[in-house]
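Hypothesis: this fold can be encoded by more than one sequence.
Test: take the structure tokens below, design a sequence, compare later.
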């Protein structure tokens, strides 16, 4: 599906650029490790909206980004080779699964400057990562799940005060839920009506209208 027909809003400059006879496309990727990692498919550094991306040139690849009309969750694969040792350390030591990542599509104009504004073509969460190091060169291969996968995950929410506090700190709306679970309820005047007992037995009850 074309990015111009996927319901996204392109800036006027991007529309002009992608409609021109020549196009210099770029990809920018962001990974939400404890130290944010931002990379792009060119050389050197590039700044987009006060955010700096490190160029990896031909040392990285991203699998094709697929889109469907039935909201299927299509993931993608990242592969980085010849990367700095600092990035290898992050991949080996951090709990990265479930952290956000994204890919943006952008373009460079005739002077090599970035055209405003890149558009997000993938937003998801990091899933599985493997590191290959042969002593000469290190490479990282990572799969990422589309955010649409979240719709498949069960939402287990219970009507307890602890759950309510977790969702809305300070809210005491379910404060007495635990106290009423085994509470005996009297119908009418508590002095004149006996409670119904569990297990089928009950005491004689007298009620007055």
């Amino acid at each position: 599906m074309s990015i111009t027909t996927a319901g996204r809003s392109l800036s006027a400059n991007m529309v002009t650029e992608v409609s021109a006879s020549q196009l210099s496309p770029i990809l920018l990727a962001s990974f939400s490790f404890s130290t944010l990692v931002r990379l792009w498919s060119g050389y050197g550094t590039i700044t987009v909206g006060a955010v700096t991306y490190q160029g990896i040139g031909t040392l990285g690849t991203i699998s094709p980004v697929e889109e469907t009309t039935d909201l299927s969750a299509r993931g993608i694969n990242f592969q980085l080779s010849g990367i700095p040792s600092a990035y290898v350390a992050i991949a080996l030591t951090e709990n990265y699964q479930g952290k956000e990542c994204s890919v943006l599509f952008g373009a460079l104009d005739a002077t090599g400057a970035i055209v405003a504004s890149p558009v997000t073509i993938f937003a998801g969460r990091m899933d599985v990562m493997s590191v290959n190091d042969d002593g000469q060169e290190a490479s990282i291969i990572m799969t990422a799940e589309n955010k649409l996968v979240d719709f498949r995950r069960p939402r287990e929410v219970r009507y307890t005060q602890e759950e309510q506090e977790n969702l809305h700190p300070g809210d005491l709306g379910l404060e007495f839920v635990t106290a009423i679970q085994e509470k005996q309820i009297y119908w009418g005047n508590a002095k004149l009506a006996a409670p119904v007992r569990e297990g089928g037995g009950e005491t004689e009850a007298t009620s007055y209208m």
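The chain has two domains: 12-152, 156-209. Strands lie at 24-31, 37-40, 45-48, 51-55, 60-62, 76-81, 100-108, 119-133, 138-146.
Hypothesis status: open.
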